[in-house]
Predict the 3D structure of the following.
Amino acid sequence: MVFGIFMAILDIQIVASSMQQIQAGLAATRDEIAWVQTAYLIAEVVIIPLSGWLARALSTRYLFVLSCGGFTLMSLFVALSWNLPSMIVFRTLQGLFGGAMIPTVFAVIYTMFPKRLQPSMFIVVGLVVTVAPTAGPVLGGYLTEAFSWKALFLINLLPGFLVCLSTWLFVRVDEPDWELLEKIDFLGIVYIIIFLGSMQFVLEEGVRKEWFDSHEILFFSVVAAVAGIAMFYRELTIEHPIVDLWAFRNFNFAVGCVFSFILGVGMYTTIYLMPLYLASVKGLNSLQIGQYVMVTGLFQLLSAFVAGPLAKVLDSRLMMALGLSLYGLGSWMNGDLTHESGYWEFFWPQALRGFALMFAFLPINTLALGTLPPEEVKNASGLYNLMRNLGGAIGLAVANTLMIQLNKQHYAVLRESVTPGSPQAQSLLAGLQERMVRLSLPDSELATLKQLYGLVMREAEVITLNTLFHILTLVFLLALLLMPLVRKVSADAGGAAGGH
């Protein structure tokens, strides 16, 4: 089952490094091809909160085999896509099937394993959830260079079949409750799909369409708000809700979801910013970028051997505070880089963040799901995972918006310093023009000005990305202020309800 969610999470990021090749293969524009990612993410966010109800109705075994089988089949169809619309349809269905697998695994840990083994199992799942996005761009870059972009999806076929077969044969954790299908809340499902689908669309597309200047974004924002109010009212008042929001009455679960949201902001935003930094500032290709960013995954793997034993003896609140602090420190170090920074300047901030992830991830799981009654865990696991994905979506939307605004501001400030009266500017221009003359360019003066513009833009981008890493540090430090609200969960129980 863990291998199944590895494929589902990997499929979000594996496409990221090969967008240009897919765009060329499908003869799509840059804006159109973004829907290959957006469609998958919207579908995944919609299905995650419904997975708890589906697991209760169909049983874990049926749901997981259906999800993994559908995901594998859609991977084949995506590879066989003949144009952009067909690919978007298949990617949507792939996200829909893939998203249902993720929370199911979290719920199974609490029903299949004794409490003493739960921290160890969370380490395994934690590594997958956070290593998969790190490995995605590297593997994607390699497969596209060596074979074709179609290979990104065809590699799912054999593992997908084996996961389906082994889950069907060996996973027996609960029985289906077919009566739930007779009480199905169709209106609740419609509200959830409209609310989460519209919200994810606004977050994904907002920055490209300049937010509320676009009638389309304004329309979907209103739709999301109305559907959200309708969904909350219905799910809190009917007898058999499709998503039981009353899980938030458990204080630890509510605070754990806030921390899961913050972790989502940190994880997904750094996964997005690092390749961007390395591509636009350092000019590296997808394979080189992969070699840089894999440091995070490697240190995460190392931290599992330290965090696992510590989780059994250390107060989960102290461990989480340590994880959040180290992640914040790693982000701060990343905010002091220049365009001349080499491999080792990028190495240590990433190493620190990778090492910190498991220290934050383990106690958050125990904190959020560990004090709930077993019958509520399936539903709550969907809500908990949804919060992490929403954190990532909102983090990326805010990062994209800030990047555009800060780039303009920093460029304007730098441009004021590059004036005809500045000795440094004159010296740089003279050197650049001399180089252009040596290259025998027809209009060396224009080429020099273009080169100068590129240099100023690059420096503006460096300052912008550094600022974003500093903002991320602030988010993690502010998260520490929530620590006094957290109630203790006993470490030896690995998820049992502890004292206060």
Remarks:
- The two ends are 34 Å apart (CA to CA).
- DSSP finds 20 helices and no strands in the chain.
- The longest helix spans residues 374-417.
